[in-house]
Structure formats: C-alpha cells, structure tokens
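Risk register update: the risk of archive-format incompatibility is retired. Evidence:
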Amino acid sequence: MSLDTPQAETRRERLTAHEALQRLEQERASRLTQLRAIEEAPPNAEEQVMSTQKDTIRRVLTEVEAAVARVQDGSYGTCRTCSRPIPVERLEILPYTPYCVPCQRNAA
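Archived output:
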C-alpha cells in the first residue's frame, strides 16, 4: 500500500481528533522516556552520540507539540504545503507529520 495515494475505499480519510491525540501522546511518552534514559546514562557514554540523540528527541517532541496544536485548531491531517489531506496510513506511521509524502519529498 502506497503512502502517496489515499486509499479512501479501504480506510477512512481522516483520524478523529481523539485518535490523533492518542497517537501523539504515545509519541510524546516514548520520546520523553528515551530522553530520560539518555540523560541518566553513565558519564562514560559516548558524549557526541548522546548529544545527537537528545537533539533528535527534542526536535521530535517539538513536532509532536506542534501537531497537538494542529489538532486543537482543526488543521491536523492537512498538508501545510499543498493543503490536501494527509493519508491516514501516513499519520498512523508518523502522527506528527505536517506534510503529505510528495510535499515531504520535494522539501528534502
């Protein structure tokens, strides 16, 4: 199943706000757990690797918070570039994404 094309026949086109918030809460909890584990690592851990992981986790947490705001303002699930609906399959995999696959590819 491609994430480029919505499969409206087999799946819903949108997650409900409740479903989106549940997925985002799971992402947030997972990232916070990862961040705590890194911060509690022994001092002899690879410092640069740990720093990079912390930066990545903090970036994702920022993206999760932005997605929660989009749920609240009603724009969640709509691509910020082309304004088309983001396929549910993509949101299930990456619930905090603000872009559909084609727009994400063009941005990269």
